[in-house]
Amino acid sequence: MVFEMLFPSEEKVHPMDVSKIQLGNLIQTNVFLNIEKRCSLASWIKGNIKKKECCFYVEDAREGICKCGYPKIQHCDEAIKPEDYVGEQWDKHRHVREMPTDAFGDISFGGIGQKTGKYVRVSSDTSCESLYQLMTEQWNLRSPNLLISVTGGAKNFYIKNHLKDKFRRGLIKVAQTTGAWILTGGTHAGVMKHVGMAVRDYTLSSGSMEGQIVVIGVAPWGVIHNSHTLIHPEGCFPAYYSLDEQGQGRLSCLDINHTHFLLVDDGTHGHYGVEIELRARLERLISQQSLGNRESGVKIPVVCVVLDGGPGTLNTIYNSMLNNTPCVVLEGSGRLADVIAQVAALPVSKVTLVLIGQLLKRFFVQEYKNFTELQVIDWTKKIQDIIRMPHLLTVFRIDEDKNYDVDVAILQALLKASRSDEHAGRQSWERQLELAVAWNRVDIAESEIFTEESQWTSCDLHPAMFSALVGDKPEFVRLLLENGVCVRKFLEHEETLCKLYAHLPACFFRRKLAKRVQGDKTRRGQAPTSGSRRISLSHVSEEVRHLLGSFTQPLYVASRYKPTKDDVRLTVPSKGQVELTCLGEEPTADTVWDPGRDLFLWAVVQNNRELAEIGWEQCRDCIAAALAASKILRKLAQESGEDDSEEAKEMRELANHYEKQAIGVFSECHSWDTQRAQKLLIRISPSWGRSTCLWLALEADDKSFVAHSGVQALLTQIWCGELSVENPHWKILLCMIFFPLIYTGFLSFRRDEDIQRQAERTEQQKLAMDSVFAGISDAKIKRHFRGPSKSELKPLDCSSRLMSLLMSPQVKFYWNIASYFGFLWLFAVVLMIDFQPFPSWRELLLYVWLTSLVCEEVRQLYHDFDGSGFRRKAKMYIRDLWNILDVLSIMLFIAGLVCRLQASGTVFYVGKVLLCIDFIIFCLRLMAIFTISRNLGPKIIIVRRMMMDLFFFMFLLSIWVVAYGVAKQGILIQNEERLNWIIRGAVYEPYLIIFGNVPTNIDNTQFDISSCSVNGSDPLKPKCPLLNDDDMPVFPEWLTIIMLCIYLLFANILLLNLLIAIFNYTFQEVQDNTDTIWKFQRYELIKEYHSRPALPPPFILVSHLILFIKGVFLRYPPQRHKHFRQELEQTEEEELLSWEAYMKDNYLASTRQDESQSVEHRIQDTAEKVGAMSELLEREQEMVSATMAKRLAKLEEQVSESTKALRWIIDALKSQGCKSKMQPPLMSKSSDRDDGDSSGQETDEESPPHTFARQLQYPGSTVKRFPVPEEKVSWEVNFTSYLPPIYNQHDSSNSDTSVLDKYRNPEGRTGIRGKGALERLGPNHILHPIFTRWRDAEHTVLEFLSVCEDAEKPGSLPGGPAKPDEPLPQTLERILGKKLHDKTRSQLEAGEKVYKGYVDDSRNTDNAWVETTIITLHCDKHSPLMADLNNIVESSPSSHQPLKWREVSCTACVSPYQREALRQVAQHHNTHF
Hints:
This protein is α/β, with parallel strands linked by helices. It is about 50% helix and about 10% strand.
């Protein structure tokens, strides 16, 4: 049965359909997973969720219908013939029992999109904890960041289109942006239908199920039409439910656009409202859950949205606001919503019974006739209480000047309620900010939180900053940075960075980090587990160094692990999801702390573009940061193993983006100052592992950056060495031949240019200073302001000029070119002229020359140019194609030399052949020399690319060549056994045909028997084809000719033209980038010759010998090349980084300006303005219509009054002085202001009557007061309908009205008679002593002694009930003790009375009330009383009522009268309250 419900019969696979069987095999795993999930859900629901059913059938007035509302056939046999309830009257609480629910699963509504939701039938007594667990754990709903409870009219009502659109758009927007749950009644009528239509519109417009809006319907099970389709003991997956509005009758259908349904069952049928209590309890439970599973104490906020509505809606609003739930009322939606909207801005004294009656008559129309006088009184009282809480009430009006949607009104209402909490203080603002971050509503934070009144420090914003970073909310991160967050302070403690890495989202770097931690644990000999693993920043450092390259130093230096209680762990669940947690490390002296880099790196490794951009803006070393990000991202994309995956593509796009950012900032720097820009390229960056920008760009393969003119200028400068870059080549070549020319000024040096520039700057500074001090004659003053002269550069001496010439990489290159040409010339001479059995002097010189080349290759292999290590150097050496050619040529030369030195003549000749082939390779190696040329270098790159294309082309060509050759050879020749002639016929001859060598052996007309061997006996002739008796070939001539034509067509025309097209495409593709590629590859040649010894081969052996002696025997450290790496002093470093940051800001500003002026931005801006204007015109039109309607109504009223006045005048004239039959009408005064336009600024001169004493629910009981509107509070006002209940908590027999009438509450009616919860009739006296002290010697903070049952909540004043003749209450004696109580009693007589009189207490009744006396006593710091009080405070935490010193402030006490007393005490001591 379970299997049938999980898989309906129409979904079963037909046994004869093979394709369906195969498909079933493919999805078999998913099928069983679904079975397991559904069985688990069914088992959990059966064990935790119940339904209700009638267990005692008592027939109602209707035949066959029970008192519960269900027909007899739906009762079990035990209920029809009960044995336990014989003779009893049917009682809902006794005769309804709970049973395991039989309606749950998936519900499908059919139609377009196949809307499917989840549902369950629950008992009205079900615990809300179980329901919340069902939704979050079984239905897998994420905990909400906001709960929106939509209530209002349950019947269909009319709403204006503009308001309807705003409501739907705003509701969906707030749910989508905040991750909210929407809670409604769930039926397809009234406000629930509007919510469903809003969800439908969003689903159709979004077109995907991502970001699905969660709409939960809480509906009564007994009023659901077609509920029988939802019943099955094992659950329905799915249950098919159809919307039948025509046949529903007085029942209701479920709304098809809701996603989840809680169907509340109280055992009855046809009764509405049974779900209200459970819904209220569920809302209260959700509001007590922590927001986002955080430990910050912020709970899930709840807001109530009201449309239309009747009496039930009023009760819902009233109870919600009593529970501090803010409500948003939509004006214009009808009935109750409009009544509240009309009086919301009025003072409570203006909201009278008459006004409420008029509004009810106006907005309820026909329904008003059914209202009784008591209901109007009750409505008036509740509405007065509602508008008395303005911080919880928000009215959304369309005709207001502020044009915003409902979503803004909802969020503003929540923030307003949070801000009005008198006891929260600073925590209120922090809670608002936490909510705004959870909702991801930057607009709300800007307008409501970060205002001029709020003063935020960086530390206050750190929790919000962490939440915004972890929650991937870049707009909020930027907003927080703009409003005071300092990244340096935020990442001041390494634990923060550890936690950030612990909360990395699912990404490739996170998986790599988990593997590294696992491997580290395995290396330490610990058994790897799938549970918790420790991770430190050293793991992050190792992984980042792996991505950056081994040439960098670790970013975070590992310290010895010290386990603490705050250790954070890395958890790897069994299903592959990784939860990283970290432990903090103490920074060591070698650690470079750069918070901007840390934030940027954290965002880059997770491939988050928006957060990375914000982090990059915080980096000072921005060029190096961008290039490092490019390297990291390209490495991650490469190691992901999925080149076409979306994640890898995004990584490459982000890498290209940061390469462009680096180019942009460097271009800005280069345009301002070339010298500083070049320093940025070779400056050692401590923040990025002591690497340089140039080296990072090369490692990241950022060709565009390296090809930048500024970078190329630096490379050219390094290439020329100390020589000027302006020297023409012929001058350098001439000085190489005749070096004394360098002393004549024939050749320019960079030192000379630097001296000239320094002299020009000095002259300009001198002229500027002379103009400033033109009127000052004192030479000392001039010298003082000019300051000391900087050290002047000196010209190069003779030896320095000669060494500069010889050590220039350009000169080394020219000498090596000449040397290489000499080597090739000598090699050619030896091969062609002087290759003797015994080596000649030329050949010996060649061997020495080759030895110098071998030594140079060994030096290049072992020379650690950048300190990256031998292993990495060897890898880089092997990757270079020219180095491979070098090794191949040397190995081939050695092989040829070994063969050449053998005595055998054959082997000697083989050696010469090998050397000849080696000569070809040496000639090809010559191309590498010309890569430095601007003209030849790009062409060599094109040739290399074309060789790759040619290789793949030859693969295609070989297929045709072999196919035609083998077929032709088999047709022409019979059993050829000579291998060389087989290869000639099958491969060589078909290959030559491509180049025009057309064969003659396929045509009988050109056959010559003398050109072949009949039996193949002649090794110099091919074998003749099969001959006939006339010695003519017998092969089919027509076939061989056709085959040749087809072969020529495909090979010569198709394939060769394909090759030309490939070459053309490659040329066009590479031509645009050859310059960039050439500039990028130029670096390697410059680096090689920069580190190369000055002497060319074979004289370079002397340099090698010197280097060997220095390195091996003298142990000299390796030479570092300052032209590629330069470490600056700290002052110069800071100055350069500040300048770079300034240039970055200029670049970003220009970039934003360009974006704002782009065509796309202008079109978008224009579209937004047009949309705003269109909406403004529509709103203006509706406002005009509404204003016109009001004016017409007022005009009609004035006309009616004028008509009455005219009638009265006529009657008076007719009677000639006698009284008229009609009373003279009172002309209404015209007013320019409408009824609803009151701003609420009017206040009563008299103090308002007591409010707490008129709360409808009496505290600590189920008794409800009689509703007393504010105008009926006074005993002098006649109130004939006043029938309050009598309640005595301690003595229920004391209800004699004659006794009660002797005591009357001095402040007026309260809605209840008797003693209530008080001890006696009449006044009940309470005494509160206020003990105060100064916290400090400066008397800046005043404190008072309070009773605190909860340390996080405000306390109260000590004291309690006291008899009139008692100086202190007995409660105080229990708190202070007998001794201190007696001592305090004597001193309180000298105390000052702050307040004495009536207290507005919720326990007050018409006949019993509370009166209090508050006395203040200030304690001196050194007084004995003060010492005794301090001792009591120190020992009180373990007591039932602990004492604590608290600051005198507005958030210190709960009771309003106590707060007022503290205000007077603060005023008395002249301190801030």
